[in-house]
Amino acid sequence: MPVVMISLVSGWSAADKRKLSDTIHNALVSAFAIPTDDYNHRIVEYKPSDFILPAGKSEKFVLIEMTVFPGRSADAKAKLYKEIVDGLEKLGVPKSDVLIVLNEPPMENWGVRGGQRGDTVNIGFNLKV
């Protein structure tokens, strides 16, 4: 159940924002083997004056923060990063303008399925990829 927040400078069309989100989701399905319907994304747009970009980055800069269940291998994470930047490059975002941050809180820090602690339920898919 990745929770994804995509931060970017405003100016993207609705269709392009959906393509951006779908690219990230498809990479999560491929690299982390999440269910295809496990989609929880927020897109946050900032006025150029409200998003201070890192040095050398363009207004196409995309910050992707994902909070995910722990357990994925370093190889799965590398695959995820590569698929995201390769996919976003096809949408006109330079690879150097993508920053991805994974947060992996322990399962007991997830309240799922009506408030149950995440480490007490069967989530229904394998985290060891």
Can you tell me the CATH superfamily? Macrophage Migration Inhibitory Factor
Strand content: 15-25%
Q: In the CATH hierarchy, what is the architecture at level 2?
A: 2-Layer Sandwich
Could you tell me how far the N terminus lies from the C terminus, measured between alpha carbons in angstroms?
15 Å
Whole-number average pLDDT?
95
Structural class designation: alpha/beta
Percent helix range: 25-40%
What's the main sheet like? 4 strands, mixed
Number of domain units: 1
Which characteristics define this entry?
129 residues, Macrophage Migration Inhibitory Factor, four-stranded mixed sheet, globular, 22% strand, 6 strands, two-stranded antiparallel ribbon, alpha/beta
Summarize this, please?
This protein has 129 residues and is of the alpha/beta class. The protein is 27% helix and 22% strand. It has one domain (3-120): Macrophage Migration Inhibitory Factor.
Description:
By secondary structure, the protein is an alpha/beta fold. It has one domain: Macrophage Migration Inhibitory Factor (2-Layer Sandwich). Helices cover 27% and strands 22% of the residues. The protein has two helices and six strands. It has helices spanning 14-32, 74-89; strands at residues 3-9, 41-46, 62-67, 98-103, 111-112, 116-117. Strands 2-1-3-4 form a four-stranded mixed β-sheet, with helices on one face. A two-stranded antiparallel ribbon has the order 5-6. A hairpin with a 3-residue loop joins strand 5 (111-112) and strand 6 (116-117). Helix 1 (14-32) packs antiparallel against helix 2 (74-89). The radius of gyration is 15 Å and the shape is globular.
